[in-house]
Model the fold of this input.
Amino acid sequence: MLSLEYVAVLGYLFGPILRTVYDYGLKWMEDPDIEFNTRYLVTMLVSAVTGIIVAFMYLPGFLQSLPEGSALFIFVSAATQSFTLNHLINRPLESRFKREAEEVEGD
Done:
């Protein structure tokens, strides 16, 4: 069985990857012809690296505040925390890049 530290790291990795797939799914629902291209893959990898960095920053305090022996709870908590952090970082950037792209197209 995995130790709780590994479960938390897996959760921190899963959150950003889920965020990227979720964003792709929303765009796919608007336009079914959109492909999962290199842009999404690079975003997912960068998000996973960010998730690892966040995991090592927050892991000691995170594990102390959780109940012992609750692997599923730790995984879901870590995934939720990293998903939210990744969303808070990416959403404003996406809005800015989309706005800049629309301004370029308008010129």
Summary: The mean pLDDT is 79. The helical segments are 4-30, 38-64, 71-106.
